[in-house]
Design brief:
Layout lengths: L2 H4 L2 E2 L5 E5 L2 E6 L2 E6 L4 E6 L2 E6 L4 H22 L2 E8 L4 E5 L2 E5 L6 E4 L4 E4 L5 E6 L2 H13 L10 E4 L13
Antiparallel strand pairs: 1-6, 2-3, 3-4, 5-6, 7-12, 7-13, 8-9, 9-10, 11-12
């Protein structure tokens, strides 16, 4: 049995949840999201609490219902608080700027990298060396942050590149004479 799946998902005030068959729809102050649960998992809404349980005692159902509960919890958190990832840019001349709906990154290449901001994602640049990616879908926020980081991942010698704000870069010692 999944320890994550056993816990119920509480619906916060100001959020409405609706379960229709295998689809869970959540509407909150930041937007609307929906998630379709696998057929091996049953979903039940009672008293502003969503409970998830496996329909069968198979290994697949056991493994899927904890995941389904986590996804539903992310739906509720996304429409209430939203998700945010912060990126830092380190390096001489490395910087970021927003130009319309594009993020322009100067990362030491011969040309600037232009990243189009996807729908449902908000990117802000408080400083030229900081990028904040926000949205209501945790998977998309993480994916966009990973794509931006992928243009110039931090290198282990000087630490130059794009890294997550809480990421630690293991430094290597340079060549010895």
């Amino acid at each position: 049995m999944s320890r994550v799946g056993k816990r119920p998902v509480a619906i916060a005030s100001g959020v409405t949840a609706n379960v229709e068959g295998q689809t869970v729809k959540v509407k909150g102050p930041k937007g609307t999201r929906s998630f379709t649960v696998h057929d091996d998992v049953s979903v039940e809404l009672k008293d502003n609490v969503i409970r998830v349980a496996p329909r069968f005692e198979t290994k697949r159902a056991q493994s899927l219902y904890g995941t389904a509960r986590a996804q539903i919890a992310n739906l509720v958190e996304g429409v209430t608080k939203g998700f945010e990832k912060k990126l830092e840019i380190t390096g001489v001349g490395y910087r970021a700027a927003l130009q319309g709906k594009n993020l322009q990154l100067s990362l030491g290449y011969s040309h600037d990298v232009v990243y189009p901001v996807p729908e449902g994602i908000t990117i802000t640049v408080p400083k030229p060396t900081e990028i904040t990616v926000a949205g209501i879908d945790s998977q998309r926020v993480g994916q966009v942050a990973a794509e931006i980081r992928g243009y110039r991942p931090p290198e282990p010698y000087k630490g130059k590149g794009v890294k997550y704000a809480n990421e630690f870069i293991f430094r290597k010692e340079g060549k010895k004479k």
